[in-house]
Task: inverse folding
């Protein structure tokens, strides 16, 4: 029997993975071939999706991107030959998957199993190192678990980079009987998909991380708040929680050790601001997703007023490997105060798009030029937006910035959730600045005037600059407006929208010069 | 189809949904999702029923329904096409696809074609930024869309 692996990750489905799998199954049946198709998460080589991997004695051999029309020629070329790659001359032949440089050069700690295992097989999960972290944690006192997470240097991957161990310690120190773990799976940032990929490709690692967080803080209930735009992730996570519960990984006695922890999956309702932690808590409570003033911190008074750990999906999914391999193993990767690995998501106009997990410290230029291989269109790179819709646009002049929280802040930007969106030289940066303001206006929770009103004014001012109306005065106005938003907003939606806007103005001034219009045109 | 229930059915269904889910911690969003799933929108008549069931004011429930982009107060067309308007898709020509869809359908974003076939909605990222530009048609995902791909989707929904 030959095993073939095809992803069922949404990015693979979006480019036809189901049709490819269907065609292969059908054609194999016609030919009487003994074939099992395993649907996995994605390896993260998204420009090669649909990727088809064939199990051989020399490991998995990859072909991609495969279309349904390629199936017959691939079968004719003998690509199912189990011994060695029999279809080595086929144009879609990529060789052993693990030898593809994009994958080979990664350090996969958090995404170690993603794309390899059947996401909903707990046996696969265990066979590939799953549950080792939780097993260790279940035998440790809460303080020791928190200590390990603190030592690892793990910082929140949702954007703010707050040390995870310190957050957990605050909740552990609260005497309350009822506490919560909330997994922030709202992933609203454009250019990011790491949360989606891990939930679809290795859901048990998220569950394991949450269970460890529960044991570490004394919380007995967890919620995963997943954005409604992610139906596949919602489905996979829901099924995984059911499987985990039946297997005793969740429930009244986690792994039979007597401590209780359970998880509920909740669906968002299409509001970007609900990724902000306090807005998310309001949303879970059934309220409008309005941002809360801090203090109190969620760690003290969070969900339903109880002490609450709220962490990003990737923060939580990184915890099992820390407990399993030890905090030093994780901490020894990285640079400066950015420890461990970061799943960089390469999006937009890049030749090699996908997920690249690597230790902190690569420069932006290495990521864009070497890892991503430049643009998909083959045109020069003009700008790279790092960190989602609230992240700055970087010009080539700043490509020596190392991927590190502090270095990005010093360069006038942010890492955020580590999405990088590449634009070629046809991009119009005035249009991008306008979009940033428009997005803020659409998604503002409405609590602060600079965010709610300022963003709408911002769109108008950018439009006037675009039409060449009093450009100097309007550019000064835009800068003032950004200052007001930056310092007068309660949360980073209003507070950080100036990053994309002002970085566009500063680094790409030519795009903000329009031919002056004659009065009559107004 | 269940979205064509008459109003007494509506009262029964909403009451059932509320009683099934009110034990949840923070039951309002799950209830609104269930109501929208059953009726294709959150009918105005459902708001006071949910409010009573949860001991909330009508204004509170109304405030929540209107806050979130997902909840509709009117039914959508028979098909819903969501086009991603966010940055990674912009970088791959998403704006041009948006313009084409609007032209072909003769509507703007947030509108439904006169024959009730298609509702066109903007979405800010589908997490398919590595296979941009992306869209979702009735819950199914589509990536690397070009003009031809978009036209195929539009043809599928009869436009
Ligand atoms: C407007 C806004 C949107 C946010 N969206 C997300 C999100 O989608 N996912 C996320 O994990 N954090 C998001 N955050 C950050 C959260 O507020 C919070 O810092 C994070 O959930 C903490 O988890 P971490 O420490 O594990 O990163 C957002 C913040 C703001 C201001
Ligand atoms: S900055 Fe905007 S989104 Fe954030 S709290 Fe204020 S109004 Fe709400
Ligand atoms: S007054 Fe609230 S943002 Fe300025
Ligand atoms: S930006 Fe379009 S799918 Fe993410």
Result:
């Amino acid at each position: 029997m030959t095993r073939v692996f095809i992803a069922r990750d949404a990015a693979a489905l979006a480019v036809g993975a189901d049709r490819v799998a269907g065609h292969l199954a059908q054609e194999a049946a016609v030919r009487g071939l003994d074939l099992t198709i395993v649907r996995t998460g994605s390896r993260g080589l998204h420009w090669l999706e649909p990727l088809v991997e064939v199990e051989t004695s020399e490991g998995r051999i990859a072909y991609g991107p495969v279309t349904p029309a390629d199936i017959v020629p691939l079968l004719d070329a003998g690509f199912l030959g189990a011994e060695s790659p029999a279809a080595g001359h086929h144009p879609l032949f990529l060789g052993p998957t693990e030898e593809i440089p994009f994958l080979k050069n990664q350090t996969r700690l958090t995404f170690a199993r993603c794309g390899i295992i059947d996401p909903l097989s707990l046996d696969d999960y265990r066979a590939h190192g799953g549950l080792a972290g939780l097993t260790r944690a279940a035998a440790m006192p809460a303080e020791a678990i928190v200590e390990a997470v603190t030592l690892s240097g793990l910082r929140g991957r949702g954007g703010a980079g707050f040390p995870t161990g310190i957050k957990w310690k605050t909740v552990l120190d609260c005497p309350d009987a009822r506490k919560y773990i909330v997994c922030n799976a709202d992933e609203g940032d454009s250019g990011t998909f790491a949360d989606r990929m891990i939930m679809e490709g290795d859901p048990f690692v998220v569950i394991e991380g949450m269970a460890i967080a529960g044991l570490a803080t004394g919380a007995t209930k967890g919620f995963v708040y997943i954005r409604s735009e992610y139906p596949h992730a919602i489905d996979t996570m829901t099924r995984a929680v059911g499987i985990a519960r039946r297997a005793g990984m969740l429930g009244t006695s986690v792994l039979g050790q007597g401590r209780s922890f359970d998880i509920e999956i909740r669906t968002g309702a299409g509001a970007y601001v609900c990724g902000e932690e306090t807005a998310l808590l309001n949303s879970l409570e059934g309220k409008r997703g309005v941002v809360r003033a801090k203090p109190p911190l969620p760690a003290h008074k969070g969900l339903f007023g109880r002490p609450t750990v709220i962490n990003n999906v990737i923060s939580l999914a990184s915890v099992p490997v820390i407990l399993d391999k030890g905090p030093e193993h994780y901490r020894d990767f990285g640079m400066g105060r950015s420890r461990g690995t970061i799943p960089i998501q390469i999006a937009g106009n890049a030749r090699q798009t996908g997920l690249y997990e690597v230790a902190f410290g690569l420069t932006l230029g290495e990521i864009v030029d070497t890892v991503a291989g430049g643009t998909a269109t083959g045109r020069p790179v003009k700008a790279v937006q790092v960190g989602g819709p609230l992240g700055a646009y970087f010009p080539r002049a700043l490509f020596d910035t190392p991927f590190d929280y502090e270095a990005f802040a010093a360069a006038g930007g942010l890492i955020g959730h580590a999405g990088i969106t590449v634009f070629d030289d046809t991009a119009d940066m005035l249009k991008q600045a306008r979009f940033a303001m428009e997005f803020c206006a659409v998604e503002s929770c409405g609590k602060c005037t600079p965010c709610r009103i300022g963003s709408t004014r911002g769109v108008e001012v950018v439009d006037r600059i675009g039409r060449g109306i009093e450009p100097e005065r309007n550019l000064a106005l835009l800068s003032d407006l950004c200052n007001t938003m930056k310092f007068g907003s309660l949360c980073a939606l209003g507070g950080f929208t100036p990053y994309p806007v002002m970085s566009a103005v500063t680094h790409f001034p030519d795009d903000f010069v329009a031919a002056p219009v004659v009065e009559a045109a107004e | 189809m269940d979205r064509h229930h008459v109003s007494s059915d509506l009262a029964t269904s909403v009451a059932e949904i509320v009683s099934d889910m009110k034990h949840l911690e923070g039951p309002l969003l799950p209830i609104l999702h269930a109501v929208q799933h059953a009726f294709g929108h959150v009918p105005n008549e459902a708001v006071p029923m949910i409010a009573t069931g949860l001991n909330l004011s009508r204004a509170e429930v109304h405030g929540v329904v209107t806050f979130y982009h997902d909840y509709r107060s009117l039914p959508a067309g028979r098909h819903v096409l969501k086009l991603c308007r966010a940055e990674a898709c912009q970088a791959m020509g998403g704006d041009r696809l948006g313009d084409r869809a609007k032209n072909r359908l003769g509507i703007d974003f947030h509108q439904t074609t006169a024959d009730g076939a298609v509702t066109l909605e903007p979405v800010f990222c589908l997490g398919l930024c590595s296979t941009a530009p992306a869209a979702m048609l009735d819950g199914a995902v589509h990536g690397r869309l070009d003009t031809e791909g978009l036209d195929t989707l539009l043809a599928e929904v009869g436009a």
Remarks:
- The mean pLDDT of chain A is 96.
